């Protein structure tokens, strides 16, 4: 099984579903001495397989992140009311409101079969825990299993099912927070504190994520006892990222320096740059994932096509103001260099 402690640089390019994570980004992270993850979320098994093939041909270690399926809709009436509230947005962009999706497992079984068949080195899970049987199948294939968690209690639950590592997300993290329960309200524990608490409690390695935007943050997270840091927001404007143009522009010239945690776009809590969509819909949205995601997805795509950032999910962690463009390889190398006092100490 792959051991993250063998990396030249203990830096992981986070899986960012919806476009930002690309094979090129994963390859760039490896060239820097770290490792990257493909994001399986929202992709067909066929597309995921093509990305695995593309990265695999380079001969580098990498991981794949898979969304654990959520429950079917619990309150269809609440979802219908939210759909009705979205009608003005759909009308503004001239797109039809989609029908309500009662359940969607995001091809979970097929993706598990695929990563086993292709012997992917690391597989991480977000939005829940895989079954003990699934973990055993992955272990039998020599795959290291990682669970994404956002609290000490969630860490305990993950350890109990037999995962090999934990990815601990603090409150500063951009995009979706890895709470295991759909209805859970995320805590506001900073990444360094949460990582320290989890490290002191479990006997498996811990990755820490959230707000890691400069060398000082890298050093602080590693000092907490984490074996590696995971970065996402810091790579959103990199050359290799698949981040859309509206998102990039908003990150470069934000209307304000404020990020907020909202369920408005997907039904799950996620940190994003605040915009009018969040202000209008956050109080109305039910905790229903993936139903809400499917309702807003065509609206968000239409807003991107129109160049309108007020209706786009502008995922960003609290460190977004420090991001820069350029090669992801250079961004990662610079973070590591800054964490150790300058280029003369970089490997």
TrEMBL record:
Source taxonomy: Bacteria, Bacillati, Actinomycetota, Actinomycetes, Mycobacteriales
Species the sequence originates in: Gordonia oryzae
Pfam family, one: NMO
Protein's recorded name: Propionate 3-nitronate monooxygenase
UniProt keywords, alphabetically: Detoxification, Flavoprotein, FMN, Monooxygenase, Oxidoreductase
SUPFAM superfamilies xref list: Inosine monophosphate dehydrogenase (IMPDH) (SSF51412)
CDD domains, sorted: NPD_like
Reaction it catalyzes: 3 propionate 3-nitronate + 3 O2 + H2O = 3 3-oxopropanoate + 2 nitrate + nitrite + H2O2 + 3 H(+)
Family membership: Belongs to the nitronate monooxygenase family. NMO class I subfamily.
InterPro entries, alphabetized: Aldolase_TIM, Dihydroorotate_DH_CS, NMO
Cofactors: FMN
GO molecular function: nitronate monooxygenase activity; oxidoreductase activity, acting on the CH-CH group of donors
